[in-house]
Backbone:
C-alpha cells in the first residue's frame, strides 16, 4: 500500500475520474461518444475543472491513448489501470493512491466519467461538504447511493487497505453516521451503458437546451418590455 503524504491543511479537493471501463455493453467506447459536441469523458473532466477540483486525476484502462487524446488541453493528469477488467474497485484505489501522493489534496471527490448529468455545481457542493469537516460526503439519488463521493484524506489509507471490489461501498457502510448526505434528483443518476441509454440522454440534453433557450428568450422579452 502506498504511503499517504501528510495533509496540507485546508487543501483543495482532488477529483478522481473513473474512466477505465471496457464499454462491453455499448459495443464501442462510450467515453468517446459525443454529447453536446464533445466526448463524454471530456464533458466530465470539464465539470471537475469548473468545480475547481485540483488536481484532476483520470484513471484510464480501455483504449487509454484514444481517451487521453480526447482530454487534450484540459488541466488533468492520467494514470493507466492495467487491472481495469477486474472492476471499478481497482480503478478507485489506483485513483486514491494518486491523490494520496498529491500533498496539496485534502480530500478526493470520486466521480464516474459516464454520468453526464453530474454538473460542476454538484461537484462543487460535494467538495464544500456543506461547510462541515465531515470525513465523507455521499450522493443519494432516491434510495441509491452513488458518485460523486468525497473521501477526506484521513480515510485514504483505510480505503487503500480494503480488499475486493466493494471497497467504496464498504467505506460508505463504515462511515455512514459521520457522512454528509446530499440528495440529488433521481434523473441525475443516469449513466451510459447501452446504446439506448446514450440515445435517451442525447434527447434529454437536447430538450434541456431547448428549455434553456426558451427561458432566455422569455427573459430577454420581459426586459425589453420593461
Residues:
Amino acid at each position: 500500500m502506498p504511503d499517504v503524504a501528510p495533509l496540507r491543511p485546508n487543501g483543495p479537493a482532488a477529483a478522481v475520474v473513473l474512466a477505465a471501463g471496457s464499454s462491453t455493453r455499448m459495443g464501442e467506447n462510450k467515453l468517446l461518444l459525443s454529447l453536446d459536441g464533445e466526448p463524454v469523458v471530456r464533458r466530465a473532466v470539464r465539470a471537475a475543472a469548473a468545480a475547481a477540483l485540483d488536481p484532476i486525476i483520470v484513471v484510464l484502462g480501455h483504449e487509454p491513448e484514444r481517451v487521453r487524446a480526447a482530454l487534450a488541453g484540459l488541466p488533468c493528469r492520467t494514470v493507466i489501470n492495467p487491472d481495469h477488467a477486474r472492476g471499478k474497485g481497482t480503478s478507485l484505489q489506483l485513483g486514491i493512491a494518486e491523490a494520496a501522493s498529491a500533498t496539496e489534496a485534502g480530500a478526493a471527490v470520486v466521480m464516474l466519467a459516464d454520468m453526464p448529468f453530474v454538473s460542476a455545481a454538484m461537484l462543487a457542493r460535494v467538495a464544500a461538504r456543506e461547510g462541515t469537516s465531515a470525513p465523507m460526503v455521499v450522493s443519494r439519488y432516491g434510495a441509491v447511493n452513488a458518485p460523486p463521493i468525497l473521501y477526506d484524506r484521513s480515510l485514504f489509507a483505510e480505503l487503500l487497505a480494503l480488499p475486493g471490489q466493494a471497497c467504496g461501498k464498504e467505506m460508505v457502510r463504515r462511515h455512514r453516521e459521520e457522512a454528509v448526505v446530499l440528495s440529488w434528483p433521481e434523473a441525475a443518476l443516469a449513466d451510459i451503458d447501452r446504446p439506448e441509454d446514450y440515445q435517451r440522454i442525447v434527447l434529454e440534453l437536447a430538450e434541456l437546451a431547448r428549455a434553456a433557450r426558451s427561458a432566455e428568450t422569455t427573459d430577454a422579452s420581459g426586459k425589453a418590455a420593461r
